[in-house]
Amino acid sequence: METNKYLNDISEIKNMMSKSSRFISLSGLSGVLAGIYSLIGAFLAYKIIYADSSQLGTYRNLVVTEDSMMKLFGIAFAVILFSLITGICLSYKKSKKTRREFLGRFI
């Protein structure tokens, strides 16, 4: 009889601890997608910075103009935005799946 009581107490403590966790962990997929977004952004930045210079031979010119800088800032903003949106969406989906509150204490 007492064994059942102890098991019920342990189960109740476990449930309270899992519900009281303050932060929802991000899924691994959101980290992978953020990395993919970063690689795409790095590739685009490389193409912008090192413009094709076929008329000058095999060497590449480093071209960083004001227009190039604006494009680089746009790429950086897009990578951050897509990473945040992906992280939020996948965390929301995970909270629905586990039936937990999504950012309840922060909003």
Label this structure with key terms:
107 residues, mainly alpha, two-stranded antiparallel sheet, 3 helices, 2 strands, 4% strand, rod-shaped
Identify the overall geometry: rod-shaped
Strand content: under 5%
Number of helices: 3
Widest sheet, order of strands: 1-2
Class from secondary-structure proportions: mainly alpha
Mean pLDDT: 78
Helix proportion range: 55-70%
Using the CA coordinates, give the radius of gyration.
24 Å
The helix/strand order is: HHEEH
Low-confidence stretches: none
Structural domains: how many: 1
Q: Please outline the major beta sheet.
A: 2 strands, antiparallel
Distance between the termini: 44 Å
Total strands:
2
Task: Report on the architecture of this protein.
The chain is mainly α and 107 residues long. The protein has one domain (24-98). Helix content is 68%, strand content 4%. The protein has three helices and two strands. The chain has helices at 2-19, 28-49, 66-98, and strands spanning 50-51, 61-62. Strands 1-2 form a two-stranded antiparallel ribbon. Helix 2 (28-49) packs antiparallel against helix 3. The longest helix has 33 residues, at 66-98. It starts with a helix and ends in a 9-residue tail after the last helix.
